[in-house]
Amino acid sequence: MTTFRFIHSSDLHLGRRFASLPDTPDANLRGRLTEARHTALGRLATAARAHGARDILLAGDTFDSPTPSYAVVRQALAAMGENDDLAWWLLPGNHDNLREAEPLWATIARDAPANVHALIDAAPVSLGAAATLLPCPVAYRSAGRDPTEALVTMPSDAGTARIGLAHGGVTDFDDTGATIPPDRDRSARLDYLALGDWHGRLEIGARVHYAGSPEQDRFRHDRRGVCLAVTLEGPGAAPQVREIETGAFLWTRAGLRLTPGQDAAAALAALLPEAGRREVLLSVSAAGRASLAEQARLQDAATRAAPEFAHFRLDTEALATHYEEADLDAIDRAGALRLAADRLRAEATDDGLSPDQREIANAALARLYAIVREMRE
User: Fold this and answer.
1) Is the pLDDT of residue 178 over 60?
2) For the chain, percent helix, then strand, then coil, each to nearest 5?
3) Which has the closest alpha carbon to 273: 254, 245, 299?
4) I need a labelling partner for 369 at 20 to 30 A (CA). Which of 2, 113, 272, 322 fits?
């Protein structure tokens, strides 16, 4: 019985531009994130060698679009080719599906080095005496069918482990046939099913896994990207699956709940990471209640901390205002400004007004407080 080791990854989305994120000349955030996706190829190669593996299985969406630039494609192929002691197996996913990305796969077939293999056919591929790879390339972006259906009848070499490679979502199987059944490993007699599409690490069953993207691209998963180092001791044996961290950037969220009288700036400082901020994208959601003065101090603290991070966002939409007389006195004790402040407070706390009207009044009062504070400083 021969042991077979490999790396399972997916969803590199090479060439992604991160257009929804702000960019500044000094930080060049979008460029840094795009480059991190490319250099993830090198980190996958390092993980493979550390695991004693020769094969890297990429379960779809290696490229972010069906028409990546020629430079993105050639640079990716060059990076894989430089690691010529490893075999790279590329599966078309929904973003780089066979139909829309036909020129892409033609380019790969023409220009790829000998150790890079495009899996454009749903046909078994021998990985030597230990394993057979059973790929399920995505033909259309929205095919409306289960992409792993062919695995049930796909043959494999006698005495080898059966490894399925597919891209799509797993939910309870229904009448549409558009999702992957969670028991596909059993119905197709698979020793391991390597899936892509979900960008986070997710175990469906002992033999069915999503590796997630090796370099995260959203706040949903709250951890750095990983790949999976998989060991198969032979047909029928339970796979041994180990996570190896590959992500350069951490996308994470944090909740900040405030109460009246609390030092909001200190509360924010307490939840910020102490080191590595340049590689962290952090979204903080403030909730609870705070005075206008504490809200202003919170914004000041956020403004001071933000440049240390790759990206920093403070969301105060759920933070209600605790109105204190001292806040209104800070605007003015009498006169036109105080009249305006009193009127805005009345509107902000008037249950007879719509939530949107109250929010507008509250925002206007906070802005008035900030303007007066800035003038006096």
Assistant:
1) no
2) 35, 25, 45
3) 254
4) 272
